[in-house]
Design a protein that fits this description.
The protein is mainly alpha-helical and about 475 residues long. It is built from 17 helices and no strands. It folds into four domains: about 120 residues, no CATH class; about 80 residues; about 110 residues; about 100 residues. It is extended, with a radius of gyration of 32 Å.
Length: about 475
């Protein structure tokens, strides 16, 4: 490994943005081991005291001081080499054991994890889409090319099937043809999904001729608007990350304060550029709406929503800037979602953990707040505590059989005596009525309409809430 490659990765460790770190960070690159730039950081720190003096010293004096300081650091490091080596070996063994344990608990093959990481790098370092005058023409030509590839792959699959079922085909050739057929089917499926995605983006069906879309003004503006929106999101995210570093800095030294001031000034200088992109995007949206009104757009076209300039830099979760309505569709019917979206058990376990964490926190807060001398506040807190106990007993029977997250040591909060008292109240008919476990029908849950089930659950929650209020009024 060259010294230039090592130096680039070391100095990219923590100072650069995330797309740069995923490639050059030493902990994320092969061949660097546990290198973290500690030696370089210690070297800069050891000679940082010479910065102020070096500004007024002459060239030769400055070089003499640097050489003396570096020689002293080398001599000192030589005596500490044994302790440094022992510390690094112990740290290496601890990291290796931790990594092996994490991989064992994960249950996913290393090859799959590595392929997923490569996919992350490819996705996060992909160049942003650019605007162009011939975006519509390029998209139409790509769709035609994909359609042609789909037809060729379909013919190949049919040809391989004919060869496999042909009695004159040797057995050893049949085995090879079956492997080739499987690969051809996978390629055909991927190409069909890409064709569907491109057709949805262009607003065309599988039987439509798309040559009339080559000079479509609406399609050209739609693709340029999507490129602009992607670029605006990326710049707003970078701006937010930079401001987060400034908001988390307290009691900085003067040198660090200067860096923060420089970062804040650079962020403010980029704000007019982001606003100009947003205004240009809004103009595209207005023109697309006008073309839809003039019937110069594809069927069922929807004009995208404009960006609210007053809340452009807020970057909230529910901001309209995250919506791609009217700019194409990424989801394809029949296409498998990403791997991290397919594991329903992981999300259900997360919901189970979040439910218990919420309850334990609510119980802890109420128990802490009970240490008050105000009788009115104490009365309300007692009511809240009883509501939580009834909620716990209701949940207790419903989540029987639902597994808990491994290595979780979180407790619900109530004592065994409080739980038994709440159970007795429910058995006496003073609580919420809940359904019997034997009534649960797996087939009905699998085939039931989602909207109907959600509506029934909402009615049940409202009824339970009314029962709680009526019970509290009786206690008053």
């Amino acid at each position: 490994m060259s010294r230039a490659a090592f130096a680039i990765s070391i100095f990219h460790a923590f100072g650069h943005q995330w797309p740069c770190q995923v490639i050059y960070h030493p902990r994320k690159a092969l061949g660097f081991g546990l290198s973290d730039g500690e030696g370089a950081e210690r070297l800069w720190h050891s000679i940082s005291r010479l910065i102020a003096y070096g500004r007024v010293a002459g060239f030769y004096v400055h070089m003499y001081n640097l050489d003396s300081q570096l020689n002293f650091a080398n001599d000192e490091g030589l005596f500490k080499l044994g302790a440094w080596l022992r510390r690094k070996v112990l740290a290496c063994e601890a990291k290796a054991n931790e990594a092996e344990q994490t991989l064992a608990d994960c249950g996913v093959a290393e090859e799959v994890l590595y392929s997923q990481w490569q996919a992350q790098i490819q996705a996060q370092t992909a160049p942003l889409p650019r605007q162009g005058r011939n975006k519509a023409k390029a998209a139409v030509e790509e769709l035609l090319r994909l359609r042609k590839s789909k037809e060729m792959l379909r013919e190949k699959v049919l040809h391989l099937r004919d060869l496999i079922i042909d009695p004159s085909t040797p057995n050893w050739d049949v085995a090879m043809l079956e492997l080739e057929l499987q690969s051809a089917k996978e390629s055909l499926l991927k190409t069909e999904n890409r064709v569907k995605k491109k057709e949805r983006t262009l607003g065309a069906s599988s039987t439509d001729a798309v040559w009339h879309l080559v000079n479509s003004a609406y399609l050209n503006k739609q693709m340029n608007a999507l490129a602009l929106l992607t670029r605006i999101r990326e710049r707003l995210q970078s701006r937010k990350f930079e401001l987060d570093c400034l908001e988390c800095s307290y009691r900085k030294q003067r040198s660090d304060q200067r860096i923060n001031e420089h970062t804040q000034d650079s962020v403010k200088r980029r704000e007019p550029g982001i606003a100009a992109l947003a205004r240009k995007y809004n103009s595209y949206c207005v023109e697309m709406g006008r073309l839809i009104a003039q019937r110069k757009a594809p069927r069922n076209a929807i004009a995208p929503k404009t960006i609210d300039m007053d809340h452009l830099f807020s970057l909230d979760v529910d901001n309209d800037i995250w919506l791609d309505i009217g700019l194409g569709y990424d989801d394809i019917e029949g296409e498998a979602p990403l791997r991290w979206l397919r594991d329903d058990n992981r999300y259900l376990l997360g919901e189970r953990k979040a439910m218990q964490e919420w309850f334990s926190e609510e119980w802890r807060i109420v128990a802490t707040a009970l240490n008050t001398n105000s009788r009115s506040v104490l009365y309300q807190l007692k009511i809240r505590q009883e509501q939580l106990l009834r909620l716990f007993v209701t949940w207790e029977r419903a989540i029987v059989g639902v597994p808990m997250v491994e290595n979780a040591e979180l407790e619900w909060g109530p004592s065994e005596q409080d739980i038994i008292h709440a159970r007795n109240e429910l058995e006496a008919g003073n609580g919420i009525e809940y359904s019997d476990d034997n009534i649960y029908d797996v087939e009905f849950e699998a085939e039931a309409d989602d909207l109907l089930t959600e509506h029934l659950d909402s009615l049940r929650i409202v009824q339970n809430y009314q029962d709680l209020n009526s019970l509290d009024s009786l206690q008053l």
